[in-house]
Write a structure and sequence with these properties.
434 residues, alpha/beta, Rossmann fold, pyruvate-formate lyase- activating enzyme, OB fold (Dihydrolipoamide Acetyltransferase, E2P), 3 domains, five-stranded mixed beta barrel, four-stranded parallel beta sheet, 13 helices
């Protein structure tokens, strides 16, 4: 979501007459869009602010995102260069306010607030061909996970109207976008704040069906899903909608029922396992990825072993795993039974080593198979004799493809035979002549 917000802001500023500097040293303005869900990104933001002050003392720094909400006016005290604070809800006001701040060098401005309804902003069209686009469908979250500060820094859930979502998607598709990724803190609960839930049906499944009717759209993805709100009709959509990619990121957070309860996740392992089984029944080739936290307060050795058991039983294609740390204002910060840093580090290393084997197996399973790759950009590493391109297949695997001669193929869908599995990606050869 921050990536999408930053991209929107960059494109809008260009349209509003702000030329982009090539380096921070020559910039008049630097905007930092932050995250504070974990401690490490917060520390990185502070380090970046200090570095900018040291290399460009006269710079105007704007800080947005979760850290700006969490610290608020306290950021003004950290650096005289910080003159603008904003959040995702007030992003649309940033370009005009930057002009005002450039005219008044003494002014400092805090734009942060949470409107009652979803804050619409103009759709910024791609200035060049783009294979995929992110589209926000909601802001905020009504869940109360004990470790999470999202409700306090992003606000309560506010869903966007279906008509506005579909209009933005249609516009992007008409301008060449082939893949849409719907974004929200919990997409499965989309529109529950707008209309009462009826008959166990999910409004989100209706949105997926409506979106799939856009003729030129090739692929649909969404993130992130909360297991407690993943309904049968959304699972069925993986069978019914060919455009819905066979990949789902479904955060588990812990394999221990005791820890899940302490986290306030509102599901247990039998429920999660049932969801995974249903998903694989609906789409046997589906790739399921997850999030896991180690070292939550009160986590015993057995609770941690339950995490490892979950990875073995569920065979995730990949997982994003983190050491628990207290976040300001999160309920878990006051819980007893904090785990020593050394123990958390050891547990995380063991969990990640186990996951590496399952990720390797998932990638190796693709070798020799044919898949469709939507090309997104030129690969970072280039072959000496051939032009190398990078894209993703429907399962969200990163695939690098070497072509015999240079082509501008952003947005092209290429049939590819996978020839090699790397640590986190795949190598393929085109099935047809280019």
């Amino acid at each position: 979501m921050n990536t999408h917000d930053s991209d929107w802001l960059k494109k809008t500023l260009r349209l509003k007459g702000f030329p982009e500097a090539q380096t921070p040293e020559e910039a008049d303005i630097v905007l930092i869009n932050t995250c504070s869900v974990r401690k490490k990104p917060e520390q990185k933001a502070y380090e970046l602010i200090s570095w900018l002050d040291s290399i460009n003392p006269g710079i105007l720094i704007g800080v947005g995102g979760c850290l700006a909400v969490q610290v608020g006016n306290g950021l003004f005290e950290r650096s005289a260069s910080i003159r603008l604070l904003f959040n995702s809800d007030t992003l649309s006001a940033v370009p005009e306010e930057l002009k005002n701040l450039m005219d008044d060098q003494e002014k400092r401005l805090n734009l942060i607030h949470f409107p009652v309804f979803y804050p619409e902003r103009n759709t910024v069209l791609p200035t060049k061909v783009e294979a995929g686009a992110f589209v926000n469908i909601m802001q905020g979250c009504d869940n109360a996970c004990a470790y999470c500060i999202v409700p306090s820094v992003r606000g309560r859930q506010r869903s966007r109207n279906m008509e506005d979502i579909l209009a933005e998607c249609a516009t992007l598709v008409e301008h060449g976008v082939k893949e849409i990724t719907l974004l929200g803190q919990n997409v499965n609960s989309w529109a529950q704040d707008l209309w009462p839930k009826a008959g166990g049906k999910s409004f989100f499944s209706e949105l997926l069906k409506a979106l799939s009717k856009l003729d030129k759209l090739q692929r649909i993805r969404f993130t992130t899903s909360h297991p407690k709100d993943l309904s049968d009709d959304v699972i069925d959509a993986f069978t019914e909608l060919p455009k819905l990619c066979p990949h789902l990121h479904l955060p588990l957070q812990s394999g221990s029922d005791k820890i899940l309860k302490a986290m306030g996740r509102k599901y247990d392992m039998p429920r999660y396992r049932a969801l995974a089984t249903a998903l694989r029944r609906a789409r046997p080739d589906i790739s399921i990825t997850t999030d896991l936290i180690v070292g939550f307060p009160g986590e015993t050795d057995q609770d941690f072993r339950d995490n490892l058991t979950a990875i073995k039983d569920l065979a995730f294609d990949a997982s994003f795993s983190f050491k628990y740390n207290d976040r300001p204002g999160a309920p878990s910060a006051s819980l007893p039974g904090k785990i020593a840093e050394k123990v958390k580090a050891e547990r995380l290393a063991e969990l990640q080593e186990l996951q590496t084997g399952f990720t390797s197996t998932a990638l190796q399973r693709m070798v020799g198979l044919k898949t469709e790759v939507l090309l997104e950009k030129e690969s970072r590493k280039q072959d000496a004799e051939r032009n190398s391109w990078q894209g993703r297949d429907p399962h969200n695997y990163v695939v690098n493809v070497c072509l015999p001669q240079p082509h501008n193929l952003i947005g092209a869908t290429l049939p590819v035979r996978i020839t090699e599995a790397k640590r986190h990606s795949l190598i393929g050869e085109p099935e047809t002549g280019i």
